[in-house]
Structure formats: C-alpha cells, structure tokens
Amino acid sequence: MNYRTRIKKIQKHLSEKKQFPYLVASLINIKYCTGFEGSYGYLIFFEDETVFISDSRYEEYALMILPDIVRFVLQQKDFFTSLKSLLKEKKIKKIFLEEHSITLSQYKMLKNECKGIAFNYGGDVINELRIIKDDDEIETIKKAAQITDACFNHLLKIIKPGVTEWDIAIEIEYFYKKHGCQGTSFDTIVASGAGSSMPHYKTGIKKIKAGEPVLIDMGCIFKGYCSDITRTVFIKNIPDSVNTIYSIVKEAQKRAVDAVKAGLTTNKLDSIARDFIAANGYGDLFGHSLGHGVGLDVHELPAVKQNGAMVLKKGMVITIEPGIYIPKKAGVRIEDMVLVTSSGHEVLTKSTKELIIL
C-alpha cells in the first residue's frame, strides 16, 4: 500500500476544508494512513507535518513501519499531555476531531487537559476517502473473496446431519487461518433450522438435522481486508414453502447485482431487490438493509439502504444480501461482494447460488 500517497491525499483534502490540525483516533483509520497495526496510538495532521503519538510499547515498531513523512512522538506522561505540548509548541488554539471515533470520555479528557483549546467537529474525512478502493486494496479484497469461496466449497464436503453449528463455525476459522488469513472478519453465523429466521443468529451447539436449511454468513480478514458472503443450503430435502422463498431471494439478489453501476444511488439499488420481494408477498419479511461497504472494516460506507442516497462510484466494494425470514420456521439470505467498475460491476464472490441440497 502506498501510505505516502494516502497521507498526501488526506492533507490536500484537509487543506481544502481548512481543517488543520485534525486528530485521528480510529485505529483502523490510522492503519489505513500509515500501516500501523498496534492497539494504541493517535495520528494528527498538522498543516506542516503529520505526527503519530504512541507509548514505549510501540516505539521501535512505529519507527520501523511509519512512512518517512510521519514523525513519531513518544508520549510523555500520557497522550493528552503530549498533545497539549505539541499544540503549545505550534501555537495552535483549535483542533478538529474525527467525529465517529472520539468517545465521550476521550472528549472530556481533552477538554479537561487541554484548556484554552477549541475542539471542533471535523467530520469523518478518512472514512469518506476509504469508500473508494485503490488498485492494491481491490486486489487484496479479491484474494480475501477467493479464500472465502474456497472455504464455502470445503464446507459442502462436511455439512451433514449430526454436525453441530459450532463444528462448522470452527472449521471456517481453521480453514481461514490455514490459508493465510488473520481470522474471521466477524463472528461467523451458522444458523440451522428455525434459527435461520434470525438474520443475526447466535451460532450454538445445535445439531443439524435432515430437512433443515443451514444459513452460513462468513468472512475472513486477509492482509487486513475483509470478505463477506452468505449462502443458504439444505439438508436432504427442502420444503416447498422454503423452496419458494429461496427462488424469490435468488432472483431479487440477481436483479440488484445486475443493476450495480456507477451513478446509481444506494436507495435505488436497495429498492430493486426490496420491491421484487414485496411484489411476491414477502415485503414484511425483509427488514434489514440490502448491503454495505466492505474494506478494512467488514461494515463500512456506503450503506446500501432505503433511506440512503449515496451515489455509487468506481472503486466501491459493496455487498448485496437480500433475505426473507419466516419467524420460528426458516430463513434464506444470499450475499455477494460486488465491485463497482467503470463499465458496470464485477462480482467478487463466485460461490454458486444454485439450490444446494446436501
């Protein structure tokens, strides 16, 4: 990743907004800017330089990993003392804060320890820039998607009556780590039988039985970037009623995926799948958003939802994941990762969506 280029781009953006200095507290955003993957640190964009503050645990690592245009400052007593010293040194009386990553306790400490400094809302500059993936990011995300596809194909050999949901979830994590991943990008969902009617079911020790759907929502972290895919398979047989909703979800997902292109708004994309499901009588049983962005976080901008009107642009990676959930009976969700391209889109997850009965 070209972190120097990213930092320059962020500096230019902040300059245009007149938002120097700008305090970054999100560790994911610090990683995006610098490559630093530790558990503690703060990044500050000043007009004349960019400074990273951390403690002695990360001094050697930070000096090794940080781009040469970032100055490392070893915190003194604590971060707030070090920040106050920097602001005094530069004769700065105000600072902009990254809104969604500053906690209330951090804000209170800043106000208490840095008296005389004005703290302004700085929006989420880096989160917004992260929406568009560069070529290196896209290649890494594609690899994460490929590993996830391989994992799904592996699962088809081991899912059978008597295996527990937990067995499958552990197998997923083991497969990812055996194939160069840091782990799962979220807590894997393996929902069998009536559990599949809950979109965010808590995987347990329930044994899978013949005649049940098994909804699997999973993703990995590869070189820091996430994947996310959902498939619903069936054991031995499938009830006619569930077969019907599978066909509807599959067609709704296809229509939405086929529509992805630069210039389309996220609410319009959501409505393509949602309206089809509603037209088939199941509108009340699709309650969540159609999808979300994927990158360093498994859920990031843009949100593909009914009340969002963000315009899709080349370089965005989103999920398309409609579902129908019949309470206490069964649920079906199908999810793919989709890259917005100059000519339309590319589906990054390739696992089959044909009806699978194991």
Topology, pairings included?
Layout: H1 3-17, E1 22-24, H2 27-34, E2 42-45, E3 50-54, H3 59-65, E4 70-74, H4 79-89, E5 94-97, H5 104-113, E6 118-121, H6 125-130, H7 135-155, H8 165-178, E7 183-184, E8 189-192, E9 213-218, E10 220-222, E11 225-226, E12 229-234, H9 240-259, H10 266-279, E13 291-293, E14 300-304, E15 317-320, E16 323-326, E17 330-333, E18 336-341, E19 344-347
Helix pairs in contact: 7-8, 9-10
Write a brief caption for the model.
By secondary structure, this protein is α+β, with helices and mostly antiparallel strands. Helices cover 35% and strands 22% of the residues.
Explain this structure to me?
Strands 4-3-2-1-5-6 form a six-stranded mixed β-sheet, with helices on both faces. Strands 7-10-11 form a three-stranded antiparallel β-sheet. By secondary structure, the chain is an alpha+beta fold. The mean pLDDT is 96. The protein folds into two domains: 127 residues, Creatine Amidinohydrolase, Chain A, domain 1 (3-Layer(aba) Sandwich); 213 residues, Creatinase/methionine aminopeptidase superfamily (Creatine Amidinohydrolase). Strand 18 and strand 19 form a beta hairpin. It is built from ten helices and 19 strands.
